[in-house]
């Protein structure tokens, strides 16, 4: 999905995800308590780029409309992110979300019928934060859900949207593990491409360690589905930017590109 217009400061790097806005993070936080957003939710861009060579797009959890009521004058309405916002963004890009996989361990953020009522498939995998790499049943369930959807929608081009609270750690782990174990990607390629498209580094070191040490390339290759988007992987191997000059934001443990 293409980027929307962003401030010039954010345009300095192609690493930024769509809807990236360079904001004063302290100003953002003044409204967090009154709006009761999930911790650090407002500090992350809503959605990343859809990942070339895959059908995946990662995004932070949308919130039901009530979250954005009575936020005060300092609240920037551009920070509103509901399910309809993601759908509108996809439509504007000429794409369609066909499946949403929710990895949060709660149902309080939104009503899943907001997806299913408009024809988007919805799957819930209850993943407890910080422990996704040890939840083998959930990992296999994710593999099965994705492969089943792809096998039924080989030529439609419909995207698979995956989210946890911030659309980063649990989401990144599950997507990368699928690409490694099912589609046979190299570990470094999977991690690098996810981080490039989401716009942030995966923060949990134990998730990175698990991807490197616990995953067997092509272990579940029998679940792999051939679809048109896969054909550009060889091109991606040559063109994907390397994120060597990426520094941590100490305050948030986020990352920003330096070039």
From TrEMBL:
GO terms for molecular function: phosphoprotein phosphatase activity; polynucleotide 5'-phosphatase activity. The keyword Hydrolase applies. It comes from the Eukaryota. The keyword Hydrolase applies. Residues 1-25 are annotated as: Disordered. Residues 140-209 form the Tyrosine specific protein phosphatases domain. Residues 1-12 have a biased composition (Polar residues). This is Uncharacterized protein. The lineage of its organism: Eukaryota, Metazoa, Ecdysozoa, Nematoda, Chromadorea.
């Amino acid at each position: 999905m293409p980027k929307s217009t962003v401030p010039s400061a954010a345009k300095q790097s192609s690493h930024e995800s769509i809807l990236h806005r360079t904001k004063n993070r302290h100003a953002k936080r003044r409204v967090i308590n009154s709006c009761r957003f999930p911790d650090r939710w407002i500090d992350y861009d809503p959605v990343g780029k859809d990942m070339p060579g895959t059908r995946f797009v990662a995004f932070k959890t949308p919130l039901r409309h009530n979250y954005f009521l009575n936020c005060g004058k300092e609240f920037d309405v551009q920070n509103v992110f509901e399910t309809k916002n993601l759908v509108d963004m996809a439509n504007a890009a000429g794409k369609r979300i066909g499946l949403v996989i929710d990895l949060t361990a709660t149902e309080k953020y939104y009503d899943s019928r907001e997806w299913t009522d408009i024809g988007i498939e919805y799957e819930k995998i209850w993943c407890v934060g910080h422990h996704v790499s040890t939840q083998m049943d959930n990992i296999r369930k994710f593999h099965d859900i994705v492969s089943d959807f792809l096998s039924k929608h080989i030529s439609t081009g419909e995207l698979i949207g995956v989210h946890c609270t911030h659309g980063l750690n649990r989401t990144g782990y599950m997507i990368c593990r699928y690409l490694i174990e099912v589609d046979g990607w190299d570990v470094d390629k999977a991690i690098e491409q996810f981080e490039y498209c989401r716009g942030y580094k995966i923060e949990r070191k134990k998730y990175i360690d698990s991807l490197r040490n616990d995953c067997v390339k092509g272990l579940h290759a029998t679940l792999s589905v051939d679809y048109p988007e896969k054909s550009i992987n060889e091109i991606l191997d040559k063109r994907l930017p390397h994120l060597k000059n990426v520094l941590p934001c100490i305050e948030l443990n986020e990352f920003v590109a330096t070039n």
